[in-house]
Amino acid sequence: MRPFAPFVDGYWDVENQLADHIKRKAIAAAREEKEVKARLKTIADFEERRTDLKRLFQSALGGLPTNDAPITAEVTGVIERPGYSIEKLVLESLPRFYVTGNFYLPQATSPLPAILFLCGHAREAKAYPVYQKVCLALVRAGFAVLAVDPLGQGERMGYVNPKTGKLNVEWGIYEHSHAGLQCTLAGFNIARYFIFDAIRSLDYLCTRPEIDPDRIGVTGNSGGGTQTSYLMMVDERIKAAIPCTYITAREHYLLTGQAHDAEQNLYGAFRHGLNYDDLLTAIAPKPVQLGAVASDFFTIEGTLQSADRARKVYKLYGKPKNFRLVVASGTHQYADLLRQETVKWFQYHLQGMQAADLGDVIAPHSWERPEQQNERLTLTEAPLETLPEKDLWCTSSGQISLDRPDSLTVFELNRAEWKAKIEATTPISPLNRVRNLRDKVYSNREPASIWARGIDSGREKDLAWRKVFFFSEPDIVVTGIWIAADPNALPWVVLLKEGTFSVQKRPEFVKNLAKEKGQIFLFDVRGIGAVGQRPINRYRLNVTYGTEFTLNCSAMMLQDSLLWMRAFDVTQALSYVHAATGQTPSVYAEGWLGIVGLVATAVWKKQAGVDRLEFQQLLYDISAIIDERFHQRDHRLEAFELALLVDVQELLGRFEGRATVHSWEDARGR
């Protein structure tokens, strides 16, 4: 028997259909968002929508952590430098959840304006030389500055092996995605911990007698720009903000094929029109400067769109000068121009200093080197002398988890919050759970009329085979191969990890399975086998930041997931097999596709007629991933609140002994 050749044997171009399907939905949502914003004519209109979006934002986070205890901090050392000092701090954001930070305090008359500096994705975090320079420029200008390490960076790596000191999970974005998957399954977003750390950092600033709590600003770039923007959504104490090298537009970033970091993937953001410009205007009409670089991977076209929309909001308030765009030349970085214009903006709005011109500043983006372009646009600046990373450590070892072995990580916090959530949630009846699942699988889906096309067939000894394809949704082709030893046997829908490519990769297994079952329909859900998605970025298909990860990020922002889409495909396959044979289908599935198949059979409109279910390597419990520090990080199972929606054992029990699990798999994939 022959597997499908490329393009479904030349019949259909399917290599990008999954990405295009998601893109069409996202662009349609962006178009609707644009129309909604065009109808906002008054401040009241805008503020009503902003209130709704802030509520949506909190919902996408799963709410924020709570801690009513006064903020506690330990000063572990002080560095004295000409004109200022640097205190080494350990703050307690949540009980036994520590934040390491450097507090730059100028020798100036109190009370002082203060800036919270939020670090992007640099391993050294607060000690990264570029970030040190921003803090140094600000403290030299008379600002107190608190720079804090984010999760998974600096002195806050969450997976340090206490015996070797090495990392069991890579730092930064990979740690965020590793823990972020567990948060998503529980119905949270890991961003909630970043944001709460920032809130508690503001709490600390407000306790310092040297600080004027009515003059606090915030800035950061990249991941720090994300944190800055998110903090603007939840904390009214901010008087001025400068998010840098993060703000673009969702529909523009989508076109790049790049993934979001776990904390940047807001559930339902596309669906409900929560875009980057909404983050920018979260504190309008308070002063906001948008910092960007011309050649960022956060697309400048999206940045300009968001800036234009923000300007309209500020004009609505009669405060057009309270919004400003600064674009430096070069690639992703807190560029010199951004740093210098940051100082000017904060001096004007938080110190009352006069400025000749605080209009937009756009660096030429031509063939000149960035340093040549910026020389003509920046202020003369004395050298900013940074310190070695170790000098800025707040711990003796350089890692809070080694200095304080009792400290908690996001893993423990999320696991505890998941258990509390389960205890506080009204028990869901099996019937209602299935209804909720059915809503996820079928809502906002457009079933296609199934018109199966048989395009190739043959016989191999005692097995007959036939290749078919049909549409699951109007723009989604799915493929399958009928393999029959006995055409009168009850049919099985078979979901193997390689899809129909299994006839080439595991031919003997497929043949033996067909002989054992009598008649199988080896089926490809969207994105695998003959309808596999071509890579849309430089990473391998199924790894963190790869194609599947990226597309699932966009799907979740559409309030969907690849898991729900694929479960829908299986329901269509069940309907097709039932209609084509007039017989009751059964399902055989392995690995991660077992969860897809189990969900599909539970919600299929004729599920009472499914004859049998068989599984190999079935994950025994979704919540086991939440409970396992070193889970296998399979993002194909990532869906918001999946652990609440899918109870594997309960769903198996619905089939009254008709389900057989030949082998189980734990959260580590063992």
Protein architecture, described:
The chain has 670 residues and is of the alpha/beta class. It folds into 2 domains: 6-27 and 431-665, Rossmann fold; 75-420, Alpha/Beta hydrolase fold, catalytic domain (Rossmann fold). Helix 20 (562-581) crosses helix 21. The longest helix has 22 residues, at 17-38. The two termini are 32 Å apart.
Lay out the secondary structure.
Elements: H1 6-10, H2 17-38, H3 43-61, E1 72-81, E2 84-94, E3 97-106, E4 112-118, H4 129-140, E5 144-148, H5 173-186, H6 191-207, E6 211-221, H7 223-234, E7 240-244, H8 250-254, H9 269-272, H10 276-280, E8 288-293, H11 300-316, E9 323-328, H12 336-350, E10 361-362, H13 370-375, H14 400-403, H15 410-424, H16 430-442, E11 453-460, E12 463-473, E13 476-484, E14 492-495, H17 502-505, H18 507-517, E15 519-524, H19 547-557, H20 562-581, E16 586-590, H21 592-603, E17 613-616, E18 618-619, H22 623-627, H23 642-645, H24 648-653, E19 659-661, E20 664-665
Parallel strand pairs: 4-5, 4-6, 6-7, 7-8, 8-9, 9-10, 14-15, 14-16, 16-17, 17-19, 18-20
Antiparallel strand pairs: 1-2, 2-3, 3-5, 11-12, 12-13, 13-15
Helix pairs in contact: 4-12, 5-15, 6-7, 16-21, 20-21
CATH level-3 fold name of the largest domain:
Rossmann fold
* General shape: elongated
Oligomer state of the chains in this structure = single chain
Overall radius of gyration: 27 Å
Report the span from N to C terminus.
32 Å
**Chain-averaged pLDDT:** 94
Main pleated-sheet profile: 10 strands, mixed
